[in-house]
Write a sequence for this structure.
């Protein structure tokens, strides 16, 4: 990559300082901070002490800037999770019956952006007052489920920002008229508005590795700049004049978008390159990229948290570092027959993909195996569709027929893009899941290897080979070390799935069992929260799936689990339920040829030294009743399992009510280490007799934050405290992991997600 110019080193130091301040709040993945710090260390190791001093000052500046700008006090959260709120502000896009981001204009947090979910249709830029319920941690800043939206005062509504927002909202409405159902995709590609985009389509783009094409990035800005330059060069302007005019037009387009980070960064780099050429100097690409990073970090350090910001700069860094050398290599390879245009696009795709690979793997926990060829195929379609869509908007102002004519051609391109993406995304091998721990260990090992090989006289190719060898060694060694550490240990993970149950059980020899699958979540398939949590743990097969009863908060994710994993067999109480969700699970099991068994009292099985025994439902319980009565009393038929691993015992109770708990308590004697509290801590469960007979050390409560049921019930918590039982809750600590040994010793540790 060569030596970095001073501005690039300063930008890295300031960004590293800001990242450190943000990470202190638990909001930035630690791997990225480690990557940035070690990368800076490698490249300045041989620099004089004076350079270290300057970089230290720059680091302190970034640290201070981020600490000062980090929200605190009442701005940290507008309200508690699940509480009623009133938020005044302006929508940044038309809601169109779905929802849109709202820029808060009134105290306590003017300038904060939250996402409002509503079925009402509200124009962009109009002042509103929103009543609803607050949800923490959703869509970054938070989410409001609106119950009422009223018009607000239009004070200050004629500023340039809100005029642009209103005009952009009008363009979105024009796109809906021109493109119909495909309008959300066009709005994402041209105007950076993704509110109405189909989640399944977005998931397909992520799976095949072209999610960056859905966000306005340097690629999109570059296409606009190239088209403008090509058109202007055909006019009377000189080459330099055309470049200046194209730069002005590009900045106007970025301003229309609202200055999103990736577009702003690309416009800054284009401006720096244009200024360098105007002065007769070769463009310093690392300097241009460093200048953009420095400016954006100083303007708003908090943007370092965003995956889009990280992906944007990682992709740009990959282009700067490797695009030229890859292009030269392709010129002397058999691929040179493709021509300079395709070889250049292939080199850029490889370089950008390599640059974004660690960030994509960290945030999405998967790496696309088809990302490069799909990018090469999809990029020309987007490059043609983007100016075509903008031209259709411009033509629509002149005459609707002309706009519709152009939109028809663009629609064909986008239809090909959608069909191709969704078809490839259905392939099982299109992407592989990568745990975050692998990403962190591999990245650190590669950087340490590069530092170890950083010696005078050592060729650059040798240093790269050493770094690659270290990274490969980490990829091979890390899973072995993790497996060795887990040998002889039973793991029970109470997954944080919100208001629902999902317990993942790992036997001492690495086999997995799942008890309940949580609620359905926002996304099906690979985007389901239970599927993601299991993939994160390296699960590829589930020996047994137990569905304690057919309530949606326990079986909602079962279809996604059956689709995503090889499942040995399914057990449930065989409760006749006509619910659509339950029928879908049955149909999926039949399609996947997964055996289905009924849970019977006294049934026992063993897996790698772990003994499971069914304590309930008993013969004659409601699973013998008619379907109508059963639907109201599904909890009475909950499967209750007693787990034993040597001297360690756990009781998994589903949603069993007090009557069931009293019945099964007759079979309990002695201490139980872990109790999964029934029915999320509802007052209908957790009987004193059960607690006295089981005498658990720790009680796990799987419950959603701010849920409308008021779970866990205060009386239940008081009952547990009076019995001297330690209470651990997923709503406060995230996923709870129990690690137990055969001698009865165990630990409970939380896995709180970053940013919560």
């Amino acid at each position: 990559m060569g030596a970095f110019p001073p501005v690039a080193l300063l930008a890295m130091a300031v960004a590293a300082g800001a990242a450190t301040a943000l990470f202190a709040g638990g909001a930035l993945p630690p791997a990225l901070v480690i990557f940035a710090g070690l990368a800076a260390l490698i490249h300045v190791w041989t620099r004089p002490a004076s350079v270290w001093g300057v970089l230290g000052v720059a680091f302190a500046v970034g640290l201070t800037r981020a600490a000062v700008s980090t929200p605190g006090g009442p701005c940290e959260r507008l309200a508690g999770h699940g509480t009623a709120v009133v938020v005044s502000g302006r929508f940044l896009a038309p809601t169109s019956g779905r929802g849109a981001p709202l820029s808060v204009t009134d105290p306590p947090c003017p300038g904060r952006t939250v996402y409002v979910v509503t079925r009402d249709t509200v124009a962009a830029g109009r002042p509103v007052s929103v009543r609803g319920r607050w949800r923490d941690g959703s869509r970054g800043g938070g989410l409001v489920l609106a119950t009422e939206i009223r018009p607000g005062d239009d004070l200050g509504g004629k500023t340039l920002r809100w005029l642009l927002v209103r005009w952009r909202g009008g363009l979105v409405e024009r796109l809906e008229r021109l493109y119909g159902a495909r309008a959300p995709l066009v709005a994402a590609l041209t105007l950076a508005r993704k509110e109405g985009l189909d989640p399944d389509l977005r998931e397909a783009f992520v799976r095949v590795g072209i999610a960056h094409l859905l966000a306005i990035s340097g690629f999109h800005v570059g296409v606009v700049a190239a088209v403008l330059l090509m058109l202007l060069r055909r006019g009377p302007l000189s080459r330099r004049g055309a470049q200046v005019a194209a730069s002005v037009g590009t900045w106007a387009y970025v301003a229309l978008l609202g200055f999103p980070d990736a577009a702003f960064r690309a416009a800054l780099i284009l401006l720096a390159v244009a200024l360098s050429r105007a002065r007769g100097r070769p463009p310093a690409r690392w300097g241009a990229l460093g200048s953009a990073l420095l400016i954006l970090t100083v303007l708003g350090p908090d943007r370092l948290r965003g995956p889009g910001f990280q992906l944007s700069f990682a992709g740009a860094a990959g282009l700067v570092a490797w695009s030229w050398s890859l292009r030269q290599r392709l010129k002397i390879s058999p691929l040179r027959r493709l021509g300079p245009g395709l070889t250049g696009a292939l080199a850029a795709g490889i370089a950008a993909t390599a640059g974004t690979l660690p960030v994509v793997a960290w945030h999405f926990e998967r790496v696309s195996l088809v990302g490069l060829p799909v990018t090469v195929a999809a990029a020309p379609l987007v490059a043609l569709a983007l100016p075509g869509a903008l031209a259709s908007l411009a033509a629509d102002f002149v005459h609707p027929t002309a706009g519709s004519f152009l939109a028809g051609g663009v629609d064909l391109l986008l239809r090909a893009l959608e069909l191709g993406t969704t078809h490839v995304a259905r392939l099982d091998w299109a992407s592989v899941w990568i745990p975050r721990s692998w990403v962190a260990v591999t990245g650190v090992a590669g950087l340490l290897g590069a530092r170890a090989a950083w010696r005078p006289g050592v060729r650059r190719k040798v240093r790269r080979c050493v770094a690659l060898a270290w990274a490969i060694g980490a990829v091979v060694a890390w899973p072995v070390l993790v497996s060795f550490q887990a040998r002889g240990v039973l793991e029970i993970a109470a997954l944080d799935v919100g208001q629902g149950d999902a317990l993942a059980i790992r036997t001492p020899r690495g086999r997995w069992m799942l008890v309940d699958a949580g609620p359905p979540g926002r996304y099906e398939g690979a985007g389901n929260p239970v599927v993601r949590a299991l993939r994160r743990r390296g699960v590829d097969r589930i020996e047994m799936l137990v569905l304690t009863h057919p309530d949606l908060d326990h079986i909602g994710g079962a279809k996604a689990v059956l689709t995503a994993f090889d499942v040995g067999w399914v057990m449930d109480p065989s409760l006749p339920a006509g619910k659509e969700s339950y029928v879908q699970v049955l149909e999926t099991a039949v399609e996947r040829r997964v055996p289905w068994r009924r849970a019977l009292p006294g049934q026992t099985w063993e897996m790698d030294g772990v003994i499971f025994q069914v304590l309930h439902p008993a013969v004659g319980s409601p699973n013998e009743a008619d379907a109508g009565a059963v639907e109201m009393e599904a909890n009475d038929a909950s499967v209750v399992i007693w787990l034993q691993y040597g001297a360690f015992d756990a009781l998994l109770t589903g949603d069993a009510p007090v009557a069931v708990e009293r019945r099964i308590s007759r079979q309990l004697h002695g201490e139980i280490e872990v109790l999964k509290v029934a029915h999320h801590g509802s007052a209908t469960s957790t009987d004193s007799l059960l607690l006295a007979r089981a005498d658990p050390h720790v009680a796990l409560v799987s419950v959603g934050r701010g849920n409308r049921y008021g779970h866990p019930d205060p009386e239940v918590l008081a009952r547990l405290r009076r019995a001297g039982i330690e209470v651990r809750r997923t709503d406060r600590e995230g996923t709870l992991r129990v690690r137990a040994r055969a001698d009865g010793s165990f630990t409970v540790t939380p896995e709180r997600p970053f940013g919560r």
Remarks:
- The longest helix spans residues 371-398.
- Confidence is low (pLDDT under 50) at residues 26-31, 620-632.
- The longest strand covers residues 127-135.
- The two ends are 37 Å apart (CA to CA).
